[in-house]
Amino acid sequence: MTRQSPHYWLIKSEPFKYGWDDLVAEGEGTWDGVRNYQARNNLAAMAVGDEAFFYHSREGLEIVGICTISVAGITDPTDETGKWAAVKVKPREKFAHPVTLAAIKAEPRLAEMQLIRQSRLSVSGVTAQEWQVICEMAQD
């Protein structure tokens, strides 16, 4: 079975630890340190060219931009056991109008989004419809 790309994702980071500006400054960052099995499986499912929303968690609680998966299928360099996945990401676009968690929760078309249903998951899938809705919200 052929994988249809691109797939869409949402990756979370606490901005005081690693925020959008840090990614932009680096030009390419390694998304590592994830220690949740479902999030790991999502990282392992990513392919080069997939796109991900960059979400600031704990502070801000908003999607601030879009990044692109530049390297996929790597072992987390912070893991000595070799069982955790990582990817590399590059910034693509910063939103002029970040999309807040409150706005996402208020939008009925996003009611089933993993960000809402599994709020503690740091790497989650995003459907094509959810992707489109959030991109529209970022334009308002």
From TrEMBL:
Q: Which organism is it from?
A: Erythrobacter sanguineus
The signal peptide stretch is: none
Record's protein name: Predicted RNA-binding protein, contains PUA-like domain
Q: Transmembrane segments in this chain: where?
A: none
Write down the Gene3D superfamilies for this protein, in alphabetical order: ph1033 like domains (3.10.590.10)
Q: Which residues form the EVE domain?
A: 8-137
